[in-house]
Specification:
single chain; about 500 residues; Amino acid/polyamine transporter I; membrane; transmembrane; AA/rel_permease1; Amino acid transporter
Length: about 500
């Protein structure tokens, strides 16, 4: 025990020295192990959130073939993106993550835009996840309590879910880290329960396996090739948020190894577990058209396959998994806000960079994450009140914003790494212990090609409102940059000028 404790203390000392080399004090509590770092990304990816909440979207546009072909296609390319990001996390292990990578590989302005684009994506992913919790909970509660499910009732539940996540993240990283660890095991357990139930306890036998690979079926007004691409939103949104392992890197022990593995393995494990789950769910569908026509296709399929009582029990287990997913997402979002504010990249940076002396958490950043996520859903709520005949869903809007925002922010530092490499500014000696060797460049190129494709596909009709929202946000960023930040943003490089005495003072204030 003494040897183990001594080894941990030595590792923490090394981690602190590494962070000092990048000009930052150890202000956050570094208490996450490798599994905890993996768990936060695995919980945010949450196959029981993305694949489930957008199951009807995938089925509507791509039919059952979306599960057999769409899911592995997206997973393969997302693993390439994750591998490229993992390399950069190992090379530059700071909580600023994507934003710091872009700043150091390109310029501070590249970093500034990357940070804001990532924040836009983070707003969308938190809103999308917690809205999924509210949507499913509302659908399950309304028939039991005898009220009519409406946009308003869902929005109220959404606000309550966000509030619960804000409070828990406020209280402390130790509680959240333990819940994230539990969440990872919980996700695996619920997937196993769902799969075993559908395989052996279903009301009817499963469909033939070739049902999963049936192409040409769509319930939209689009030609199948286009409908299939639109349907990829189901899988593509699921595989988002794994940059959380990089955002919590300053809270992770031995970060140059454990955080990269957290990024990559969370995508790989989600691919396999999600494929198994979607296979059994889809093989349980005996009337695809009826499922697509249902108010919530996934609830319909599970209720038909397992019966009302048992089916609803399983569905409530899934809702809790979604809740865990949202909890982890707020953690990731708030760390990005904190890291960016620490470098004076946003209005009232002095406030949002504050750390609670009692809880060692970035409290103002946590509550900003909650408020901005609620506002995004609230904007969509008012749009629908003004235009009640709109055909897109709120969830498709929120998830479209998150996919494009996050993946563009993933792509910028990957592209800048290739540019820096071609100019000799980024060489093998800059890589960390987790690297792809000679495969780094071709994998990065393939990852960028995929990001360009899905950034277009995710905002074409009927989800064009997501594209409009993203363009509006980018115009606001442009005005902010040209009006002030172009001349006043110091960039993370400014942190390299912080003295050793200043670093020690900051840590002493927090008892670090």
């Amino acid at each position: 025990m003494t040897t183990s404790k001594s080894h941990k203390e030595m590792q923490l000392s090394e981690d602190k020295k590494l962070l000092h080399r990048f000009g930052y004090a150890q202000e956050l509590l570094r208490d996450m192990g490798g599994f905890s770092n993996f768990a936060i990304s695995f919980s945010i990816i949450s196959i029981l959130t993305g694949a489930v909440s957008l199951y009807g979207h995938g089925l509507t546009y791509g039919g059952t073939g979306m599960m057999g072909f769409g899911w592995p296609l997206v997973a393969l390319f997302c693993m390439l993106v994750a591998a490229s990001m993992a390399e950069l996390a190992s090379a530059i292990p700071t909580a600023g993550a994507l934003y710091h990578w872009a700043s150091l590989l390109g310029s501070k302005r590249w970093g500034w835009y990357t940070a804001w684009i990532n924040l836009i994506g983070q707003i969308g992913i938190v809103a999308g996840i917690d809205y999924s919790v509210a949507l499913f909970a509302d659908g399950l509660l309304s028939p039991v309590l005898g009220y009519q499910m409406t946009e308003t009732s869902t929005l109220i539940l959404f606000a309550l879910v966000l509030l619960s996540h804000g409070i828990l993240n406020h209280v402390g990283i130790r509680i959240v880290a333990r819940l994230n660890d539990f969440s990872a095991w919980y996700h695996i357990a619920v997937v196993l329960i769902l799969v075993v139930s559908l395989a052996f306890l279903g009301n009817r036998p499963l469909q033939p396996i070739d049902t999963l690979f049936r192409l040409g079926e769509t319930f939209s007004d689009k030609p199948y090739w286009l409908a299939f691409l639109i349907g990829l939103l189901q899988a593509q949104w699921t595989f988002t948020g794994y940059d959380a392992s990089a955002h919590t890197i300053e809270e992770t022990i031995n970060p140059r190894v454990r955080a990269p593995w957290g990024i990559f393995s969370s995508v790989a494990f989600s691919f396999v577990a999600g494929m198994v789950m979607l296979a059994f769910v889809t093989l349980s569908v005996h009337d695809v058209k009826a499922a697509v026509s249902a108010e919530n296709p996934f609830i319909y399929v599970i209720s038909q396959a397992l019966g009302t009582t048992f089916g609803q029990t399983i569905l409530w287990l899934i809702v809790l998994a979604m809740w865990f997913c949202g909890l982890s997402s707020i953690t990731s979002f708030s760390r990005m806000v904190y890291a960016f504010a620490r470098d004076n990249g946003m209005p009232r940076s002095d406030w949002f960079a504050r750390i609670s002396k009692r809880y060692r958490t970035p409290v103002p950043a946590i509550w900003l994450s909650v408020i901005l996520s609620f506002i995004l859903a609230l904007v969509d709520y008012f749009i629908k009140m003004a235009n009640p005949n709109t055909t897109y869903t709120t969830l498709a809007f929120l998830t479209g914003v998150s996919v494009v925002g996050l993946y563009v922010s993933y792509g910028i530092p990957i592209w800048l790494r290739l540019a820096a490499e071609s100019k000799g500014r980024f060489t093998p000696r800059h890589l960390g212990p987790w690297n792809l060797g000679k495969w780094g460049k071709p994998i990065a190129v393939a990852a960028l090609m995929w990001i360009v494709l899905i950034s277009v596909v995710m905002v074409i009709p009927p989800n064009q409102n997501a594209g409009i929202a993203l363009v509006a946000m980018m115009l606001i960023l442009l005005v902010m940059d040209l009006a002030y930040y172009r001349d006043h943003f110091p960039g993370p490089q400014a942190a390299l000028r912080v003295s050793a005495e200043e670093l020690a003072r900051r840590e002493a204030e927090l008892g670090g």
